């Protein structure tokens, strides 16, 4: 953290560029590590058929990491799909009749369709039918190129 002298002689505090991004990156790493540890502990539990302290600790760490991500404004981690993603994506395609909602082209073997978040997860969007739309790969690239 530093200070910047303004023309009027006053000092303005400057936050280091990227501090929030570093906090989010660190929280995501912690979240992933805690999730991996929880899955490993759960597999051991499944093998031995009993719950132990390691699983409870791993579960708490995972939940703490989730809380930390939420406090930083990151609702869902990008790249991590919900369990019902495949059925949700199929529902979006069916609702939009397997057509790109931007250009109207029909998806098929030669044209890939994508489920696009209208409001990105990073800005508080959700994995819901209301927030998803069908785009062809070309339109999807164009939409993301403008952001």
Protein model, in words:
- This protein is an alpha+beta fold and 147 residues long.
- It starts with a strand and ends with a helix.
- The protein contains four helices and four strands; from the N terminus they run E-E-H-H-H-E-E-H.
- The chain has a two-stranded antiparallel ribbon with strand order 1-2.
- The longest helix is centred in the N-terminal third of the chain and has 30 residues, at 19-48.
- It has two domains: 2-71, no CATH class; 85-145, no CATH class.
> How many helices does DSSP assign?
4
Report strand %: 5-15%
What radius of gyration results from the CA coordinates? Answer: 22 Å
User: Which parts are unreliable, with pLDDT below 50 for 5 consecutive residues or more?
Assistant: 1-6
Number of domains: 2
List keywords for this structure.
single chain, 147 residues, alpha+beta, 2 domains, two-stranded antiparallel ribbon, 4 helices, 4 strands, disordered N terminus
Short recap of the structure:
With 147 residues, this protein is of the alpha+beta class. It is 47% helix and 12% strand.
Topology:
Elements: E1 2-5, E2 11-14, H1 19-48, H2 53-71, H3 85-95, E3 113-117, E4 132-136, H4 137-145
Helix pairs in contact: 1-2
């Amino acid at each position: 953290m530093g200070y910047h002298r303004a023309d009027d002689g006053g000092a303005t505090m400057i936050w280091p560029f990227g501090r929030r991004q570093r906090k989010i990156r660190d929280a995501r790493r912690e979240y992933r590590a805690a999730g991996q540890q929880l899955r490993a502990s759960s597999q051991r539990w499944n093998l031995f058929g009993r719950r132990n302290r390691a699983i409870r600790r791993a579960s708490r760490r995972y939940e703490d990491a989730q809380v930390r991500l939420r406090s930083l404004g990151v609702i869902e981690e990008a790249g991590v799909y919900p369990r019902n993603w495949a059925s949700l994506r199929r529902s979006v395609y069916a609702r939009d009749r397997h057509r790109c909602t931007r250009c109207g082209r029909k998806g098929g073997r030669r044209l890939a369709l994508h489920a696009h978040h209208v409001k990105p997860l990073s800005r508080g969007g959700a994995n819901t039918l209301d927030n998803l739309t069908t785009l062809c790969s070309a339109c999807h690239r164009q939409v993301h190129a403008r952001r």
